[in-house]
Amino acid sequence: MLASVNLADRLSVDVQGAQSLRAKAASGDPEALRAAAKQFEAMFVQIMLKTMRETKFTAEGDTFGDSNNLKMYQELLDQQWSQKMVGAKGLGFADAIVKRLGVEAGSMAIQEKFAAEAAAAQSEAGAATRPADAIPLDAVAKAAPVVGNEASVDAVATETSATSETSATDRKSRFISAMLPHARKAEAETGVPARFILAHAALESGWGQREIPAEDGSASHNLFGIKATGWSGPATEIQTTEYRQGLAMKVSQRFRAYADYGEGFTDYAKLLQRRYGAAVASGDDAEAFASGLANGGYATDPAYAEKIRQTIASVSARMDQV
User: Fold this and answer.
1) Among 49, 170, 250, 298, which one has the highest count of C-beta atoms within 10 angstroms of its own C-beta?
2) Active-site residue, 75 included
3) Beta strands 235-244 and 247-256, pairing class
4) For each successive 10 residues of the chain (322 residues), what is the average pLDDT?
5) 168-319 topology per CATH
6) Among this protein's residues, is 154 annotated catalytic?
7) Ranges of each domain in the chain
């Protein structure tokens, strides 16, 4: 056991400690495996810190800002920081390594210890809200055979992935089914195909999962991310991502709020006709519609047009199933 060794206070370049740690980890000691995983995570953090240090604010050869003594001090400091950063909860890499190696090695002690620690952490932090279709990691580990059956582990992972994909497909189909009547009404008003309108709503709202909330936390029914500029009706303020000179940054913006989705789609139709004539005139050309919105300044994301085109393709593939 490593009870007498405080790894958080030892440098990652401690060769003697590393050799001892490797030997004990090879023996299957659960404590040694976790300690080795922590050291790996610390090395990753140290590389990250070193990369950050490469951004210099002083001239090369500066007496105070670029001296060899300062560089050595910074390297030692970064090593200690990396150990401290992973000493508590860390970044999560160590837990993932321990869990995976525990399954592969067939070590019941490792898996039981990890499960106990995870349960204690969840109890301490409080039950977290998660989607109804989410499958806990510990459930996957318990479902997998413990000894020497990697095919069964892979089968469980495949089944979990398939379940997640099916759930996402169902969610997207439900979104299309619920919003299709509003999209068809907007199509009648603008001439823009309903599948284009649905795709734009899906992209802006994450298929309804990231709809802008109203100030009281209820739905704003704003699926298109329409800002409250020149708007005298209800509005809500949230943090959103804007691209300034190619850089993504978080800014506070006010967005329109509607009484229902029908009102939201009607306002969107008016906005298209008022400001995005090129998109309205695109007819059945998905690429022209996407370019018309992007070139018209609908969003600052440089990849916006391509994202719209991809979402239109996704919606079109599901339209026949609704």
Assistant:
1) 298
2) no
3) antiparallel
4) 46 54 61 72 73 60 59 72 64 65 50 53 42 35 40 47 65 94 97 97 94 90 94 91 79 92 97 96 96 94 94 91 66
5) Lysozyme (1.10.530)
6) no
7) 7-126+135-148, 168-319
